[in-house]
């Protein structure tokens, strides 16, 4: 069974993270499959909208730490970098459905989505500093722009989590629905029924002001992230994380 499920409902493509036994933690291979799914959809005229969802109770626990330590993403050509580039440059509407935990990249990827629908169970966190790392996916630019500097700084510095209601109040989430997947599919079908070139052009206009700035920040984040990964501070934080996980 593939760890990224790809289904098509008329003009809507769904990419579903399918590793529920590991809380949908992402491996290098899963990043590669997500990137390919997005890039293939970008070039397929029959696809008008893409939905990113998940199987099981959680969106994603973020990076699979073991795989992450064995295959650290140190540059933009890594599978993680290719996925983040696919997100940044995806020309069509991108919708995310979030339930349960959305950790690290599980939250930062949402900053690139056009509409996010959350379940009441959704719980967001970006614990980069707790692991001796720095924010990624352009989040050091996009998140403070969305929520204000001090609020972003507090969340990044402490690694604190926040729920669906706070995420909606911040503007990270468009709506909260008991059946978040059904709500997201309804929105996706509405978008898919619109004139496609008008939608693509409108998204390009909406993203134009910040696209190059986000791309530049993502490059800087990767450089600092790579340096941090090789630091004693990060290695100690990772080992502590694994030890805590093993003791549960």
- Whole-number tally of structural domains: 1
Q: What ranges have pLDDT less than 50 throughout 5 or more consecutive residues? A: none
CATH topology: 2-enoyl-CoA Hydratase, Chain A, domain 1
Helix content: 40-55%
The CATH superfamily turns out to be 2-enoyl-CoA Hydratase, Chain A, domain 1
CA-based gyration radius: 17 Å
What is the CATH architecture annotation?
Alpha-Beta Complex
In spatial order, strands of the major sheet run 1-2-3-4-6-9
Describe this structure in words.
There is one protein chain. The protein has 248 residues and is α/β, with parallel strands linked by helices. The chain is built from ten helices and nine strands. The strands form two sheets. The chain has a six-stranded mixed sheet, sandwiched between helices. Helix 1 (28-42) packs parallel to helix 3 (79-89). It starts with a strand and ends with a helix. The mean pLDDT is 92.
Provide a compact summary of the structure.
The chain is an alpha/beta fold and 248 residues long.
How is the secondary structure organized here?
Layout: E1 4-9, E2 12-17, H1 28-42, E3 49-54, H2 65-70, H3 79-89, E4 94-98, E5 101-103, H4 105-108, E6 115-118, E7 123-125, H5 139-147, H6 149-158, E8 162-163, H7 164-170, E9 175-176, H8 180-192, H9 196-229, H10 232-247
Parallel strand pairs: 2-3, 3-4, 4-6, 5-7, 6-9
Antiparallel strand pairs: 1-2, 7-8
């Amino acid at each position: 069974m593939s760890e990224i499920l790809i289904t098509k409902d008329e003009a809507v493509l769904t990419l579903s993270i399918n590793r529920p036994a590991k809380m949908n933690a992402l491996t290098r291979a899963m990043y590669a499959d997500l990137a390919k799914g997005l890039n293939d959809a970008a070039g397929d005229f029959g696809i008008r909208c893409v939905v990113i969802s998940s199987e099981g109770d959680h969106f994603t626990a973020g990076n699979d730490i073991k795989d992450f330590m064995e295959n650290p993403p140190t540059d933009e050509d890594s599978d993680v970098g290719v996925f983040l580039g696919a997100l940044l440059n995806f020309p069509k509407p991108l919708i995310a459905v979030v339930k349960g935990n959305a950790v690290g990249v599980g939250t930062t990827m949402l900053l690139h989505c056009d509409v996010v629908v959350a379940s009441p169970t959704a719980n967001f966190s970006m614990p980069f500093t707790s692991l001796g790392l720095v924010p990624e996916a352009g989040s050091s630019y996009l998140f403070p722009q969305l929520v204000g500097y001090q609020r972003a700084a507090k969340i990044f510095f402490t690694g604190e989590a926040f729920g669906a209601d706070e995420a909606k109040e911040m503007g990270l989430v468009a709506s909260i629905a008991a059946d978040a997947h059904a709500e997201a599919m309804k929105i996706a079908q509405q978008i898919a029924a619109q004139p496609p070139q008008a939608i693509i052009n409108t998204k390009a206009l909406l993203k134009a002001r910040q696209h190059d700035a986000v791309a530049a920040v993502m490059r800087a984040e990767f450089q600092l992230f790579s340096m941090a990964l090789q630091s004693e501070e990060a290695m100690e934080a990772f080992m502590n994380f694994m030890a805590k996980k093993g003791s549960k």
